[in-house]
Design brief:
245 residues
């Protein structure tokens, strides 16, 4: 089993993360015991690109009639992304991606009156940890932690009811429901070596999400989800009884 993961991030994480097995949060420092935290951990390599390079070299670029935003992101990944066996680097990179995607200034123009800065913090923290999930090109899901099941994990960690947990899930997967946000998401996720995909249909149903390589076989991805989904969701929710407000 992999070594313990320790990373210090720019902001403090919610102490409620301590309710999940295998993760300890003390201020800005996260410590993860892979043997306890992951439901499945088969891969110890991720693809990342330097966030500063993404910020300056990809985010300002616009698609054209001859080059769609997905092609821009794919070309950038091919040129700049490199494999890493350091999960702390993945988490640090993911934090930068999601601090950007869920920045508070967007609340003024998002048209989502029920979304608060607290929700954005929840999104950033949970999505950062989701970056350790991994799916292979053939669609097999190789790494799965509790944050795969976004509403379940956030309900345990932040004490949310089911409705609020599903709202967060919709915000995470939907890129805030407009084309500008989707384009932003495609480009930002190049730092994590792929694009955000999820297994849900029209509504969030805890089928999870992952930053997958371009070209991943989605049919196998969805089939693999069905082999573990119900059991592992129940295991996450089991820890909600420990919530005390």
């Amino acid at each position: 089993m992999a070594d313990v993961i320790e990373v210090t991030l720019p902001t403090e994480f919610h102490p409620g993360w301590n309710r999940l097995p295998g993760i300890q949060v003390v201020g800005r420092t996260l410590t993860i015991d892979p043997a306890e935290y992951f439901f499945r951990l088969e891969s110890h390599s991720w693809l990342v690109a330097d966030w500063e390079k993404v910020r300056t070299g990809l985010l300002p670029i616009h698609e054209t009639t001859g080059s769609a935003v997905e092609q821009l992101a794919l070309d950038f990944i091919k040129e700049h992304a490199k494999p890493t066996a350091d999960p702390a680097l993945v988490l640090r990179t993911a934090y930068e991606v999601y601090a950007y995607l869920f920045r508070s200034e967007l609340l003024e123009s998002a048209g989502l009156p029920n979304v608060t800065a607290d929700h954005l913090r929840m999104l950033c923290e949970a999505a950062t940890l989701m970056a350790l999930n991994k799916v292979e090109l053939d669609g097999h899901i190789s790494n799965i932690g509790p944050c795969w099941f976004f509403p379940a994990a956030t309900s345990v960690v932040f004490g949310l009811d089911e409705e609020e947990g599903r709202m967060l899930d919709e915000l995470y997967h939907g890129g805030w429901f407009n084309e500008h946000r989707r384009i932003e998401s495609v480009k930002a996720h190049a730092a994590l070596g792929g694009r955000l995909v999820h297994g849900c249909q029209a509504a969030a149903d805890q089928s999870g999400g992952v930053v997958a390589p371009y070209g991943t076989t989605m049919s196998t991805f969805r089939q693999d989800l069905e082999t573990f989904k119900a059991e592992w969701i129940a295991r996450v929710y089991a820890h909600s009884v420990e919530f005390s407000g």
